[in-house]
Design a protein that fits this description.
2 copies of one chain form a homodimer.
Chain A lengths: L18 H6 L29 H11 L20 E3 L5 E4 L2 H4 L8 H7 L2 H8 L12 H6 L12 E5 L2 H23 L7 H6 L12 E5 L8 H6 L4 H4 L9 E2 L12 H24 L4 E6 L13 H13 L3 E5 L25 E4 L6 E5 L19 H16 L2 H22 L5 E4 L8 E3 L3 H13 L2 E2 L1 E3 L3 E3 L8 H20 L1
Parallel strand pairs in A: 2-12, 4-5, 4-6, 6-7, 7-8
Antiparallel strand pairs in A: 1-2, 3-9, 8-9, 10-11, 11-14, 13-14
Helix pairs in contact in A: 5-13, 11-12, 14-16
Chain lengths: 508, 508
């Protein structure tokens, strides 16, 4: 693959140490995006002097007249974008391994999705958006049964749809608080809300507004609304000046990479964290603030692609069950195949499923899966006008269908494994510049650290000038979030461009 | 109008007292939905034994296998619905004056929207959803400039798009908190965040997570997420068991209807409320909890369609300015023409615009308008992956364009005025059953009280059996939320059916 004719002249071949492994084991599937996107570029093209080019900058300025443009990377021409390649208004064609912050699953302008868009079904759903909790459409059950329900994680076959990842996490959290109080009532032999609860809640006061708390991990990211932002502990800039709930957070275990090399140190770090989680649950309960829910990402993404072992998550599940704490697994970024399994938490092989699994991003639809037991006691308790969108649920159905039909989860596992091996080789060649490589056996959900935040930014900027869009995370990490259609050709381009940029930066 | 041929046999003509007024003033426009929906039914048809019919009940049961069906009214057949009429899976055709909880602006399957749905533009936007804050599309500025910006309320020409009404309110609230702290810093001569702020915020503690509070009104509704739900004070069932911020709320003035009959009593009630708002701002500041923002609906909708006079809102604006409190006008339900002006707050003729105006529902797109001065100090502070949806912004553009081209705001003002007069006549004929009629000069945004919650429910249920979908609100109110294409024909049907049902219920 790396000797392919399309290789650009500026880069030289890598000799990845374990490249042959994947073929030796005859991968279950391997997907070539050209079969679906015949016009997809084979390599990036940068026409403008720099990225963003002058037209992008002009277009940004125009947007700036009504909306903050300061986080713009470029202004895109979505109509011209194809598969793994994002075209911008300067005509540059970028290999996109960031994919709208991990939100594009099967490529720009995927023909199946464009076909769906032109159907009567999609038009009717888009233009007659229902109040789904009260006036669902005739096709709602089928859309869900053929789509989102086919990938319901084990043990959580019920579904509440929301608008986005923040809303998904907050919806699950609301359900967790309600279920926690329902169990307390049951244990106390109380049938209904008390008069005191009914009146105090209207003043946001206890007991109607309970002093229950939700727990998260430091450096975790769970969204930007007031509840989800209280759980989020990724960066100060996300949180400054916004009032937050007094909720506990525990440090993520101090993991060293590669995980298998530091297995025993990591196990100890994880054990310390588990102990700290338990202490926190006990301490806060003593202060009258019972932990009703714990939320965790399978890999802390925004916070720096921080991993932990399946044992850690198993211990968390055991602990939360012992203390009656509802466990919410936030798969907003890890879900939908990117880690080489449809849900990242499948890898943990839990004996007892999580209570809630939340999703958004690559699914386009958002919401949470749960067990029937956490359906609120009365209607209208977890309810809102739209409760998601039938049109977007159709989109999720098509995405899931394509992912399954083409074995894209297994494909991503195989490609990810090869990519990881090649990155290991790069890390050996450029020590310091590519460190703490992580994401082994996690599909293409791979990251590494640069030497410093400045060097990370410099690397990402240099790659952008080469027509490769990458994203940072945490303090000094670079994360890969390619689509599920990222394959051999794109891997070759990515590695070639990386090698070129690292060589240049190393020479400076 | 009321003598029209299509009048059903079961009802007799009303003689509304002030019917002639509108024509005397030669209404600027009057829209007939048949011009756009030639196949729209002329009257409701109920084929099933009851509503919901057996097919609706079966379809609900199917949905119930994965999602809470207990708030279902019926299961709809959106493909067959037209204009003001919603068809259900039993083939019943309902005149819909609830419109998906006030969320359908220009009718089911509006030809312009269906046409938009089939365009390449809409397909590309739907299927390539960007991370809008970083990779906006080439057409984003134009979509907004030709759509949402053309109806930007006076004084708030900037826009932040979100996913739904709850998110819109929370986004505005975040911007208000940031602007409040920015002003405090400026006044204190502080340039940047302090080290203490940067570290404390990661623990959700002050000073980084400030003790600032947001204020709302009792019986107000502002959404269902953790921040917006803390503002919401409509019903206990919305809030029970969910932790809430310790934020203040003041009672809505005890208004008597009709407003003009009780002008002096109402003015006194409003003055008392204004005084209470000021006391609360002062009292809470003394406790270290400064009120940074106040949120208010022009008409408290979910909470019971509670009105107040323009003077009340003017006084609120004066007061909030005096105390440096940011004023958020929540137009999620009142916006987009239903009250006979595009924004309900236009009627107040404020000398100084509100700081934030939020919208969603009939706009389909959601977000908030604001002044440039409340753009956060740094990028990524108010930011999220999707930040709304370009496809839905196109939908908003088409809705706005149709509303303008057909003068639907003025149309709704005229129709609403006639409807109000006819309802006054009904109220006189059925005293007790139709009381506290309200919404004069508020387009079709009209409501009244039944004698009791049970009688309200009985009335709504009886109307449903007649093929008219209406909504309740507050304790015992019925609210009208027809679309902007609700015209003479539909008014005739509505009044006829109401007269029939009231006559039957009165005879019991």
């Amino acid at each position: 693959m790396l000797g392919a004719a399309r290789r650009t002249a500026r880069t030289t071949a890598l000799a990845p140490a374990r490249r042959t492994l994947a073929t030796e084991h005859s991968p279950p599937t391997r997907f070539a995006s050209a079969t679906v996107f015949p016009d997809e570029p084979s390599h990036p093209t940068v026409l403008s002097d720099s990225v963003p080019g002058s037209r992008s900058r002009q277009a940004s300025q125009l947007i700036g007249e009504f909306q903050d443009p300061r986080a713009h990377v470029l202004v895109a021409d979505y109509a011209k974008s194809k598969g793994n390649y994002l075209t911008d208004v300067d005509g540059n064609q970028h290999l996109d391994v960031f994919a709208q912050i991990a939100s594009i699953a099967i490529g720009y302008n995927h023909p199946d999705l464009i076909e769906l868009a032109k159907t009567d079904e999609f038009a009717v759903a888009s233009m007659n958006r229902p109040a789904l909790g009260s006036f669902p459409g005739a096709d709602w059950a089928e859309t869900i049964q053929k789509g989102l329900l086919t990938v319901a994680p084990k043990g959580v076959p019920h579904l509440f749809t929301q608008m986005d990842g923040s809303g998904a996490n907050e919806g699950a959290l609301k359900a967790a608080f309600m279920a926690y109080r329902a169990r307390e009532r049951k244990e106390a032999g109380v049938e209904d809300f008390t008069a005191e609860e009914m009146s105090s809640v209207m003043n946001n006061a206890k007991p109607g507004s309970p002093e229950l708390v939700a727990m998260s991990f430091k450096s975790g990211f769970h969204g930007r609304l007031f509840g989800s932002l209280s759980l989020t502990r990724s960066k100060a800039i996300h949180k400054l000046d916004i009032p937050a709930f007094d909720w506990p957070a525990v440090s993520w275990p101090s993991i060293k990479y590669p995980l298998d090399e530091y297995a025993s140190e990591n196990a100890e770090a994880e054990a310390r964290t588990i102990a700290r989680v338990e202490e926190t649950i006990v301490e806060w309960a003593k202060r009258g603030k019972k932990v009703a829910a714990l939320i965790v990402e399978p890999v802390q993404a925004e916070g720096g692609d921080n991993h932990a072992s399946p044992s850690f998550f198993k211990a968390l599940r055991t602990l939360t069950r012992e203390h009656g704490v509802f466990m919410i697994v936030d798969e907003v970024q890890t879900g939908v195949g990117a880690t080489g399994s449809f849900w990242a938490h499948e890898k943990w092989q839990l004996d007892h499923p999580p209570d809630f699994v939340t999703f958004s991003k690559k699914m386009q639809a958002a919401g949470y899966y749960h067990a029937e037991s956490t359906r609120p006691s009365l209607p209208y308790r977890n309810y809102n006008t739209w409760m998601g969108s039938p049109a977007i649920a159709m989109q999720a159905r098509e995405i899931i269908s394509f992912v399954k039909a083409h074995g894209l989860v297994q494909h991503t596992a195989v490609i990810g494994s090869e990519l990881y091996s090649s990155l290991e080789a790069l890390a050996r060649r450029f020590p310091g510049m590519v460190t703490n490589l992580r994401g082994k056996d996690h599909g293409t959900f791979i990251a590494w650290d640069a030497e410093s935040p400045a060097q990370r930014d410099q690397f990402v900027a240099a790659m952008r000038q080469q027509g490769v869009i990458m994203g940072g995370c945490g303090e000094r990490a670079i994360r890969l979030r390619p689509m599920l259609i990222f394959g051999d050709k794109q891997m070759e381009v990515l590695l070639g461009k990386m090698e070129g940029v690292l060589t240049t930066l190393a020479g400076k």
